[in-house]
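Long-time lurker. I teach an intro course on protein structure, and each term I like to show students one example going from raw sequence to a predicted 3D structure in token notation. This year I'd like something fresh instead of my usual example. Would anyone be willing to generate the tokens for the chain below so I can use it in lecture? Attribution to the forum is fine with me.
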Amino acid sequence: MRFVLISLLCVACHNNDAEPFPTFQECFDDHHNVEALPVGESIVVCCLDHPIAGVKPVCGSTAAACMTYLGANLSATSASATEVSAACTDYITKKGM
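-- Reply from a regular --
Happy to contribute to a lecture. Here you go:
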């Protein structure tokens, strides 16, 4: 029963019909400021689930590529370097699932 529940949660987390956003910042702001998700979770959700300017996933295939992408597409006031690093590590882990 636990396996079924976990499987359903994983499917729900990777929604193929997720709302597209024109920029990563807009996606982050929606999840963090409107939905009140934590910084790291907002980053991971935007990296994995939402098309950004028509591209999905946008955060790259490595943690380093993710950090580079976020450095260019997420305001420095939105997340600290520590939060970005942790979110990118989490993103890579979840991307591989």
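Some talking points for your students: Residues 2-95 form one domain. The helical segments are 2-13, 24-34, 39-49, 63-73, 81-95.
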